[in-house]
Amino acid sequence: MEPHRIPSVPDSMYYIPNFISEEEETSILNKIPQNHWITLTHRRLQAVPAKLTATNTLITSTPLPPYLTSPILPRFTDLDIFSGAPHGVNHCLINEYLPGQGIMPHEDGAAYHPVVATVSLGGTVVLDVVEKGCEGARKWRILQEPRSLLVTMGEAYTETLHGIQEVREDCDLNAETVANWGLLGDREVFVASGGVNERTTRISLTYRDVKKVSTIGSKIFGRGKT
Ligand SMILES: O=C(O)CCC(=O)C(=O)O
Ligand SMILES: [Fe+2]
């Protein structure tokens, strides 16, 4: 993973362009069920296999569906991304953002093992990362190209917030303003556009390990949480 480390951000964030191929991207996009979206004001989402309960527990009897696991999870294993996670990967949040949509700065928090892996599909977007705390907090911009993978762990997971601005274009993209500029798959696109990224529909797959799990079976037989 070391060659993919994003410089200047707190330990550790990694960016891998072209983590999946165009064919794989199209195939996943075509398999996302269109009748499972939960529509929010600023985006829509699907929590797979289920939404967490009020106590941040994943109650389920079904694993992630094959279109979300193959070919992505074996590649995570090859890169050793979730090797320290108690259940490996057990949850995927699918978020869809139209141009002008985004997500407020937030942290993913204690419900999950502190490793998150995000695969981007469709459009390009800037993820804003900011140190927790008040004035003078350091900020970074991370450009996420379609088919890329972004991994956040360690201090980057616990000590920063991340968000996506509700804009129709991301501006002023260059080597000075984009933390992962040197790791991008195709910088020339942004050079040619004068540093502007016109937003198009983006779908992200956010893979995590929910710490508290209760299978429906173990609930029925009274074995409780694992
Ligand atoms: O869409 C993204 O890349 C970010 C999603 C996110 O931060 C989340 O689901 O917690
Ligand atoms: Fe998040």
UniProtKB/TrEMBL annotation:
Keyword list, A-Z: Dioxygenase, Iron, Metal-binding, Nucleus, Oxidoreductase
Main location group: nucleus
Subcellular compartments: Nucleus
Pfam families: 2OG-FeII_Oxy_2
PROSITE patterns: FE2OG_OXY
Sequence ranges assigned to domain Fe2OG dioxygenase in this UniProt record: 88-211
Family that this chain belongs to: Belongs to the alkB family.
Family annotation (PANTHER family): ALPHA-KETOGLUTARATE-DEPENDENT DIOXYGENASE ALKB HOMOLOG 6
Protein name: Fe2OG dioxygenase domain-containing protein
Organism: Zasmidium cellare
